[in-house]
Amino acid sequence: MARKYAVEFIGAFFLVFTVGTAVASGSALAPLAIGTSLMVMIYAGGHVSGGHFNPAVTMAALVRGRIATRDAVGYWIAQVGAGVVAAVIVRAIVNTGRVATLHLAGHGLAAAFIAELLFTFALCWVVLNVATSKDHPNNSFYGLAIGFTVVAGAFAVGGISGGVFNPAVAIGGAVMGYFAWSTIWIYLVVELAAGAAAGIVFRAINPADK
Fold first, then answer.
1. By C-alpha distance, which of 183, 176, 152 is closest to 165?
2. Measured distance between the N- and C-terminal CA atoms of the chain, rounded to whole angstroms
3. Which end of the chain, N or C, is less surrounded by CB atoms within 10 Å?
4. pLDDT of residue 208
5. pLDDT for residue 138 is more than 90
6. Cα-flanking dihedrals φ and ψ of residue 102, to 5°?
7. pTM of the entire structure?
8. Cβ–Cβ under 8 Å, residues 63 and 196
9. What is d(CA 166, CA 56) in angstroms, rounded to the nearest whole number?
10. Each residue of 117-132: pLDDT tens digit?
11. What rounded mean pLDDT belongs to the chain?
């Protein structure tokens, strides 16, 4: 399991590091950089750990029955720890102060809630179908499909919720000052719930795929 935890740490680290530096640069192509980073890390480490790099995806895999609870906890620790380390390094090398902290309230909070719920579900749903389904035992497109789900979500709702879809990214973003700590719990609850929902729906639609 140490190998799997190490791979999860590396993948989550580079994902959050890319988020931090791409957002700080103000590039309109930040969503593409972030999705591409996730894609290549999945191709690099998916054969070892499954390439989750996201506590919500691990939650989906747990509910789907593809990871034990003890191992899921280890994944969560590695993913969140990587996010925090990446955030600290980003703050040390780039000016994150140029990015306004996102404070959620009123209609904006409800909109972010819905946006994060839908696209986190979509991300976890795609992961379960392309990376764990018995109908795709040896496919070569799983990393591309997962990475571009994040790209689509970030372009679609990045201006509403920040396009997080990942509790490790949410915590890392808060460390970098991109998200307000007072509302960070919303991301964590919504995203983990979306992951669980994706696992439940996958099992309901594919009862024979154990």
1. 152
2. 22
3. C
4. 87
5. no
6. -85, 115
7. 0.95
8. yes
9. 6
10. 999 999 999 999 999 9
11. 95
Q: Are 16 and 37 in contact (CB under 8 A)?
A: no
Nearest alpha-carbon partner for 90 in 13, 30, 167: 13
The DSSP annotation for the chain comes to -HHHHHHHHHHHHHHHHHHHHHHHHT-TTHHHHHHHHHHHHHHHHHHHH-S--SHHHHHHHHHHTSS-HHHHHHHHHHHHHHHHHHHHHHHHHS-GGGSPPB---HHHHHHHHHHHHHHHHHHHHHHHHHHS-TT-TT-S-HHHHHHHHHHHHHHHHHHHH-S---HHHHHHHHHHTSB-GGGHHHHHHHHHHHHHHHHHHHHHH-TT--
Q: How far is residue 48 CA from its own chain's centroid?
A: 18
